[in-house]
Amino acid sequence: KEIFQNIYVDAQTGKIIAKHDLSYSALYRRIADGSNNAYRNANYDFSALSMLRSENDGPHAISEVNDLYNFSGYMYHTIHNMFGEDSFDNNGSDINMIYNDTSLSCPNAVWDGSVASFCLGMEGDDIVSHELGHAYQEYHHHLIYQYQAGALNEAYSDIIGETIDNINQLGYAHNKN
User: Fold this and answer.
1) Each residue of 52-76: b (16+ CB within 10 Å) or e?
2) What is the mean pLDDT of residues 74-87?
3) CA distance 136 to 122
4) In 10 A of CB 35, how many CB atoms?
5) Strand locations in 49-145, DSSP E?
6) In this predicted model, what pLDDT tens digit does every residue of 146-166 receive, in sequence order?
7) 77: which residues sit within 8 A by CB, 6+ positions away?
8) Fewest C-beta in 10 Å: which of 8, 14, 39, 132?
9) Using 50, 70 and 90 to split pLDDT, how confident is the model at 46?
10) Beta-carbon neighbour count of residue 160 at 10 Å?
11) Rounded Cα gap, residues 108 and 156, in angstroms
12) Selection from 142, 136, 176, 175 nearest residue 159 by Cα
């Protein structure tokens, strides 16, 4: 099987900074450890972080890491099934996530333009889909994140998150009743 990729190389260091598979079913998820301000301390370099789980790895001992992995897969497959697209940008980009991102003001979850970061307790299917919804919108809607356009961006991500939640009928992850 031939694999077609866009490979991005840092012009100064020669280091590969990203690989994007261009063939269908390019689902590739990576979850890094964000504890101890790791993302901020690595100058926001995702590849410098310690990986907790990547595509085709077995389940991790931390169940919330597995939730991020599984719920991002739901989002990927929903985008493909609804719109025929490969990943949030339709270019097969990796889905990079940070678990326990202590550089955030918690509780919170964010999409920063390349990575979805989650505080502890923010690993629900609707939250993961909401943040990856921002990624999808970045490449499709091009809404400026201010004023009414910013409100629409949030509303669309809320709708995406709730839609995924209703489709998979899991409810909030780890209901601890």
Assistant:
1) bbeeeeeebebebbbbbbbbbebbb
2) 87
3) 19
4) 16
5) 51-54, 95-99, 109-111, 116-118
6) 999 999 999 999 999 998 888
7) 27
8) 14
9) very high
10) 22
11) 18
12) 136
